[in-house]
Amino acid sequence: MNILLINPPNCGRSIPEERYGIVSLKQIFRGEPLALEELAGNLLQHNVHIVDLKANPAGLDEILSGLRPDIVGITGVTCEANSMLKIASQVKKHCAPIVVVGGIQASNDPGFFNHQDVDFIVVGLGKKTFADLAALLEAGQYHDIILPGLIPTRPGQVIQRPLFCSSVGDLVEDKPPAYELVKKYRSHYVLEKLGVNMGFVASACGCTHRCSFCCITGQTGGKYLTKSIDAVVRDIKLLGDIPVIRLVDANTFGDIERAKNLCRALVRSELKKQYLADIRSDTVVRHPEMLREWKEAGLRAVIIGFEETSDESLSAMNKANKSSINTEAISILNDLGITIVGDFIISPDYDEGDFERLGIYLDQNRIDLPMITVMTPLPGTPLYQQQKNRIVNHNLDYYTLTNAVTKTRLNEKLFYTLYAELISSSHKNARI
Length: 432
Fold this sequence. Notes:
By secondary structure, the protein is an alpha/beta fold. The chain folds into two domains: 2-168, Cobalamin-binding domain (Rossmann fold); 189-426, Aldolase class I (TIM Barrel, Alpha-Beta Barrel). Helix content is 35%, strand content 16%. The strands form three sheets. Strands 7-8-11-12-13-14-15 form a seven-stranded mixed beta sheet. The protein has a six-stranded mixed beta sheet with strand order 2-1-3-4-5-6, with helices on both faces. Strands 9-10 form a two-stranded antiparallel sheet. Strand 4, helix 5 (104-108) and strand 5 form a beta-alpha-beta unit. Helix 14 packs parallel to helix 16.
């Protein structure tokens, strides 16, 4: 079968840019479409193509001019959901293929895609489910298909998220990502600060923590699923001479013994790569010796969700951590010489004093690259349930994590002005 997998274009919209001419806050998503590469790796008995519209916005028209796909798969995050439906409509008009949508937004809010131009919605990781669906369709079965994590659409009727969460079997780790299918886009996948190519590898999926704002739970139902160490090393090798590897897991160090064993396997493999990985600050504090080993193995930078600067604010997010632990983790990582990319979340309820407080914290603590986003109640999260009656902007194009979709306490223009000033000030000496 001809299978076309589509990564949507950069399509998020910016309130501060559109209303106030503040362009510095617009967020652009970059990096290879690893979710589609993983899917494709389990579909290579078919004629599979990946179109990355972030790298080549005209790519869909180009490939549809010469290909009539039997199945089209579309992935995306929340701010790309409207574009996913537009793409579904475009391909349906072109050749009426079976259209399947998946990804984080589909897993958390499948009802959004219960649309006439979509045939199936996949929740969870989807690597096994999509391949099983393709096999059934190839055999001529188009109706009454029942598969774990698969929802046939019923426009006009209510659909429910199935009682399903992905398991280790859904990783299908014996089928590596089809990195070769994005070879023509590889020059676009660059770590901008360094001007070097970066490749994506997943060593684990999901997270067992329950931060109220996080949308990851919908992917695995709160499970932490890990690939074998051999599979991780294999995937890194498949990326060839790419010097920087981004481990895209929500928490690469969720299993400490496994993390140590993976580190030692990377050393033995003599791959000589540099790594970027996510870690919790309490893991840094509890296991500095492990980080020392990882530093020797090539760990260049870690991404940490500090989120806020006070225990009260962290507790309100259901973030099982303390401000003092965050500060201690910063000190440990500075001593180890590991670059810190620190995630912080500002609330639409911020006043001028809150912006000043965060600015002082960033001045006093060496965080190499602060990443500051706006608290956003993403559909499917506990935060959404808590705040859905406060939402004033329901257009998912604006759910980029840099727009306030609930009413701001400050005058809106002042809120975004202070936000932009905070970003500018915190990035003056940014390094990675």
